Amino acid sequence: MKAGNLKDYLRNKARKEDLDYLRRGFEIIGDIMIIDLPDHLLYLKHDIIQWVMMKHRHVKTILRKTGEVSGEFRIADYEILYGSETETIAREHGCRFKIDVRKAYYTSRLSGERERIARKVKFGERVLVMFAGVGPYPIVIARLSKPSEVIGVEVNPEAVRYFEENIRLNKVGDVVRAVPGDVRAEVPGLEGKFDRIVMPAPYNADEFLSLALIKIKEGGNIHFYTFAGEEEVQEKREWIIKEIEKRGFSCEVENFRECGNFAPRVNRYVYDIFISEAP
Ligand SMILES: C[S@@+](CC[C@H](N)C(=O)[O-])C[C@H]1O[C@@H](n2cnc3c(N)ncnc32)[C@H](O)[C@@H]1O
Fold this sequence. Notes:
Helix content is about 30%, strand content about 35%. With about 280 residues, the chain is of the alpha/beta class. It folds into 2 domains: about 5-85, CATH 3.30.300.110; about 105-275, 3-Layer(aba) Sandwich (Rossmann fold), CATH 3.40.50.150. Helix 4 (about 110-120) crosses helix 5. The longest helix has 13 residues, at about 155-170. It is globular, with a radius of gyration of 20 Å. S-adenosylmethionine (SAM) binds near residues 106, 132, 137, 153 and 183. S-adenosylmethionine binds near residues 73, 106 and 156.
């Protein structure tokens, strides 16, 4: 039997309004599928597992998200619906990322964004990635461009362990270095300044913008990720400029764009900031 799409497969088994809900909330990380299945749709669990097994034959584990990404480490809660292994290897842009989704944050949904940033990195740049997780930004940058050095700072010890393993797995140890610890404690002590600082930040990103300024070179770029309501996007841009200028820098927000949804009408945005003058 052919699996077709999930909606067709469930057409005679699910209520119509439930089918509409199911279109969102599926993510595949390596051989793990994560599904967002609220309690009232649990009656479809066995049919969904069957569909996944037919349609995505490489999937070994199916996890149901039972809590949103939360806490300092940005990890969600999961219930295992099928299989047992929660460690896997995700692939993007020719890189491999070992990850246990129960222990550290990783999403395949930002892979396009990582490529966008990596392609901006010029030959010989020094790059700092704050909130580096298991290393996808630093490693994709090192593999797609030719920076002289990429440092990633990460506070979750489990994420750091995978980050270090991923540096080895991708053979980028000559360029990428993982620094364990809180960016507030680690960044001020890093040697020298950076041409580019990437801040794929946790929910409270705004607290950390001033930290980037102490390490950015004049003529450098900051990629600042933050969450905002759709109606706050311009306001946030003005806030960023004000925060930077009040510390004696001049800047231009060259571009900003949505790169992920967080809640109804609340999205993740990235602002590409050019620091034209430093005090
Ligand atoms: C949204 S995740 C992004 C991870 C990674 N950049 C990625 O794209 O997969 C944010 C990461 O920041 C880390 N983190 C949160 N607060 C931190 C802090 N104060 N210092 C360093 N890392 C922090 C979390 O543990 C988490 O791994």
